[in-house]
Write a structure and sequence with these properties.
The complex is a heterodimer.
Chain A lengths: L1 H16 L4 E4 L2 E9 L8 E9 L5 E7 L3 E8 L1 E3 L2 E3 L6 E3 L4 E4 L4 E8 L8 E8 L3 E10 L14
Parallel strand pairs in A: 2-12
Antiparallel strand pairs in A: 1-2, 2-3, 3-9, 3-10, 4-8, 4-11, 5-10, 6-7, 11-12
Chain B lengths: L1 H34 L9 E3 L5 E3 L7 E7 L6 H16 L6 E7 L2 H7 L1 H8 L4 E3 L3 H10 L4 E5 L7 E6 L2 E4 L5 E5 L5 H11 L1
Parallel strand pairs in B: 3-4, 4-5
Antiparallel strand pairs in B: 1-2, 3-8, 6-7, 8-9
Helix pairs in contact in B: 2-6
The chains are: A mainly beta, B alpha/beta.
């Protein structure tokens, strides 16, 4: 019975905690993968994540892929002199001993060609390709359209 | 004793001179800062999602929070509209004095994708407007904002829009009051509005 209750509790908390999952590959730690709900599938979705490089070698995020989107691309929001533009990012540096955040107003993945609308509470996999560390897949939580980020106990660490 | 009185008078005169100098030297400088963005009238005449022409005049008496953007924008526009939605929620009973407006700078595509569904997903109070190219250019010129279509094979339909990312506050008389730069927290926008209501 105890085990059953524990399992039920874990089962219930798992969906909300997905974005708080931590995945590692080599010296890279990937966490806080999240996205926002979309209206239909015609407009692009967005992908945010936090990558930490604990190693001594610079790496770079060179691409993303997902069964949820036919054409996912890396972009960077640049606000210069009050003008926002969104150039394509060929690769996003993940410097040694540091890391990088894909977060609102900065680097982000743009998920074009969504196979279906992203609904709050859903999750989908995204595979990140790193220049040196290779490929790793993370589960991405779809939060509300107005979300500012996942609510993890360790957020901000 | 007379010398001491004289010293006091001198000190008072010196202090007065310093104050006068400061007022002349820095007073106008502060005024200049405030006047760096003088109020100017803004105007638009743009269709809403149902094709009705909406103009500045119908919003006289209300504060307007105006944002120029496009609905295929995955990062900047949703972030700003979320802030605006939060401000509207937090205004409570004062919300009726503030009209948030989203003006599309990608009007043809936004009309096709659906403008009202998009703005309402953030907050039912946000009014989405999408005019013709000419009307959009006129509105942008009136607000002194910039937008430009950029060819980009890595964006939907092969293009993206660069645009001024500020949120503009317009007074009840239609005059431009100030901008909130991209990323201004909702709480800051809220307290500015509350100080004016």
């Amino acid at each position: 019975m105890k085990h059953f209750l524990l399992a039920a509790a874990l089962g219930l908390s798992a969906p909300a905690a997905m974005a708080c999952e931590t995945v590692t590959i080599g010296d890279l730690t990937i966490e806080h993968a999240w996205s926002k709900a979309t209206l239909g599938a015609a407009r692009p979705g967005v992908f945010y994540v936090e990558i930490t490089n604990t190693g001594s070698t610079d790496d770079a995020l060179v691409g993303i892929s997902s069964p949820a989107a036919g054409m996912p691309m890396l972009h960077e929001t640049v606000v210069q002199d009050g003008i926002a533009s969104m150039p394509h990012a060929m690769s996003i540096p993940v410097p040694a001993g540091q890391g990088v955040q894909l977060s609102p107003g900065g680097y982000h993945g743009m998920l074009m060609g969504l196979t279906t609308a992203l609904k709050e509470g859903d999750s989908f996999p995204v595979t990140l390709s790193f220049e040196k560390a290779g490929e790793v897949t993370v589960n991405v939580d779809v939060l509300s359209l107005r979300a500012e980020g996942p609510d993890c106990a360790d957020a901000g660490q | 004793m007379r010398l001491r009185s004289f010293q006091i008078v001198l000190w008072i005169a010196a202090t007065a001179a310093v104050i006068a100098f400061a007022a002349v030297r820095w007073g106008p400088a502060l005024d200049d800062t405030a006047a760096a963005a003088p109020a100017f009238p803004t105007a638009f005449a743009l269709a809403d999602s149902e094709g009705r022409m909406r103009t500045t005049d119908e919003f006289r008496g209300k504060f307007l929070l105006v944002f120029f953007g496009f609905t295929s924008c995955p990062d900047v526009c949703p972030t700003t509209l979320s802030e605006v939605a939060q401000v509207m929620d937090d205004l409570g009973s004062d919300a009726g004095s503030v009209q948030p407006i989203f003006i599309s700078i990608d009007p043809e595509r936004d009309r096709r994708l659906g403008l009202a569904d998009y703005t309402k997903a953030f907050h039912p109070a946000i009014l989405g407007l999408a005019g013709s190219e000419e009307e959009t250019e006129a509105a942008a010129a009136s607000f002194k904002i910039f937008y430009e279509r950029e060819a980009d094979s890595s964006s939907p339909d092969g293009y993206t829009m660069a645009h001024s990312s500020g949120l503009y506050l317009i007074g009840p008389d239609g005059a431009w009051l100030r901008q909130f730069t991209y990323g201004t927290p909702a709480a800051e926008i809220l307290s500015d509005l509350q100080s004016r209501l």
